[in-house]
Design a protein that fits this description.
Layout lengths: L1 H5 L24 H4 L4 H32 L59 E2 L13 H5 L4 H13 L2 E10 L5 E9 L2 H6 L15 E3 L1 H9 L7 E7 L6 E10 L2 E10 L4 H15 L1
Antiparallel strand pairs: 1-2, 2-3, 3-7, 4-5, 5-6, 6-7
């Protein structure tokens, strides 16, 4: 390419000619020491260099921040955080009603009848939990009325049992587990003939007579969160906790009214029941009920 640009004669001495300018290529560097840049120009160059550095660092910093925001903090070396206490539940799948049946609270099912199998509506145990050996279950997770009533004071059981007969109780199913931190959880679903009978059920509320529990009151953390909630919910949820004096274990109770189904969620643990997994359990069970 250089030969064509430097000469047009076909004579043989021409090839060495283009190699003479080759050493002259570094010539642009010569002017640098010849005339030192004025102080103002040096300041300008320095400012430009710092500006470029700031831009580069800003871009890198933004990229790093984006990566931290997008990824799990525990995946970033040197920036791990402790778990907030939530349990690792499997992915929830809301059961599909039988063909031709409406989902709860649809336009043609305003009473919130759950046509899916009751065991399909039960919250699964979180990963790492062990089945509760104390909970007596029959086939297909069915809970006998007398077994369920063991959660209550003996003085309240006979009246509740008669109320079940009068108020159209159809079935009770349950699931229980114990997590490594010692929390024991029992989830019961009670199916009635209609939502009206659920509203009449008094076994889950401020006046419930749980076995070994002196007194319960509204869960203050839940009450605050509920006040801040703006999204509508077709289910009625109430959360309670045992208040002092508390024995060796604290008990918390979650109550969900969802159409023809009443959920009773009980958690107990030595000293105190953690708020986060308790709230999480109630919220997830509520989602399954629709």
């Amino acid at each position: 390419m250089t030969e064509q640009n430097t000469t047009g004669t076909p004579t043989e001495p021409t090839p060495p000619a283009p190699e003479a300018p080759a050493p002259a290529a570094p010539a642009p560097e010569a002017p640098a020491p010849a005339a030192p840049a004025p102080k103002d120009r040096r300041r300008l160059f320095a400012a430009l260099r710092w500006t470029a550095a700031v831009v580069v660092f800003a871009a890198v910093g933004a990229a790093c921040a984006y990566g931290i925001v997008r990824s799990d903090r525990t995946d970033v070396p040197g920036l791990s955080t402790r778990s907030d206490g939530r349990w690792d539940y499997p992915a929830l799948v809301r059961p599909t009603p039988p063909p031709g049946a409406a989902v709860p609270f649809a336009a043609d099912n305003a009473d919130g009848i759950h046509y899916a199998g009751l065991t399909q509506l039960l919250l699964p145990a979180p990963r790492g939990a062990a089945p509760d050996a104390k909970l007596k279950l029959e086939k297909d997770s069915v809970v006998a009325v007398d077994t369920f009533l063991e959660e209550y004071e003996p003085t309240a059981r006979e009246k509740m049992k008669q109320a079940f007969t009068d108020e159209g109780l159809r079935q009770i199913v349950g699931r229980g587990w114990t997590t490594p931190d010692g929390t024991r959880t029992r989830v019961y679903l009670l199916r009635f003939h209609s939502s009206g009978f659920v509203n009449a059920f008094t076994g889950c509320g401020r006046d419930m007579n749980l076995s070994g529990v002196n007194r319960i009151d509204a869960d203050p953390d839940w009450s605050k969160a509920k006040l801040a909630q703006s999204a509508p919910d077709s289910n009625e949820r109430q959360l309670f906790e045992e208040v002092p004096p508390v024995g060796d274990e604290q008990v918390k109770a979650g109550c969900i009214q969802s159409g023809d189904v009443q959920a009773v969620i009980l958690q107990s643990r030595k000293d105190a029941v953690a708020a986060v997994p308790f709230h999480q359990t109630v919220i997830l069970q509520n989602q399954l009920l629709g």
